[in-house]
Prior knowledge:
7-stranded mixed sheet; 13 helices; globular; alpha/beta
Amino acid sequence: MKRIAVIVSVSESEASQVVLKSAQKIRALDYENLSARIVYVIDVTTEKDERSTLLKKEGIEVFSRQRRGKKAGALNDALRLRYLADFKPDYVALFDVDSRPERNFIKACVHALENDPTAYIASSPRYISNPVNLVSRTIQAEYHVLNFLLKESAFKQFNGLIGLLRADLLYQYKLNEDAITEDADYATRIHAKGYKATLVTTTALYEQSPTSWKDLLNQRKRWYYGGLQLWRYWDEVKSSKNKKFILSWALALTMTYGILLLLPLVIAAPFILLYYSSNASPKTSLAVSAGFVVYLLILQYAALIALFNFISGRGIEWQAMKRVAD
Length: 326
């Protein structure tokens, strides 16, 4: 029987009920024909952390630690310490606390990896679970574009490395704890070595988006700063000699800096939204189209700040995002 380790990293700022809801959802996934261990890696500030207590009452394994190396550090710690070192998993599933995968997510992704030895990760299209206001509904529309790009791109980069990964490759090529965006860093390095990511369309995953323009700005500043760090792998990317990958990777890192060039396309946005979304009324479509104008301005501003900070040697701090109860 093959073994799967499921790891969920939890920052200091995540509320107890958000963590508990996550555990209930992850535990209910279909692990048919797999020996599974679920571990929540919790960054704590006190010895008596309520979240750890709640999870243990639910029968969930908890690894409490002082924050080191951000999310990459949490995942590396879980893999190499006693929690999973002796378990020797064949697969590692990574989720965030707001990840809400469909019940067949694990099963569908295992099937995809078993059928493609060149794939290092399998994941699904992403959707927004909290379309509660104009900000999140605008990002919900953005995800339709991102899902299309995931299908077409030769550089499939699943945010957060949310998905099912081959454990041997994850142990061999560890996450970079110095990277601002450890997911894009790992994806770049592993693609350059000839592996690829697989998009599984028979399942889906839902996650929370920012619900304020400020949270969106902070999120994208961090993403774009992390993207600038990836240029240090240019020689490795180029040496892959995979023209489609090289082009997709380069476009992913550069298109952001001219994002305002897409502003004229906002005119067509209401019609596109009405076509792709069964829940979009004409009024909602017009509102989200207006939201796209603000969205593009924020993304352009975030890209410029990231570029300025990168050139001037300043860093980008991670900031907690406000969650919505689900």
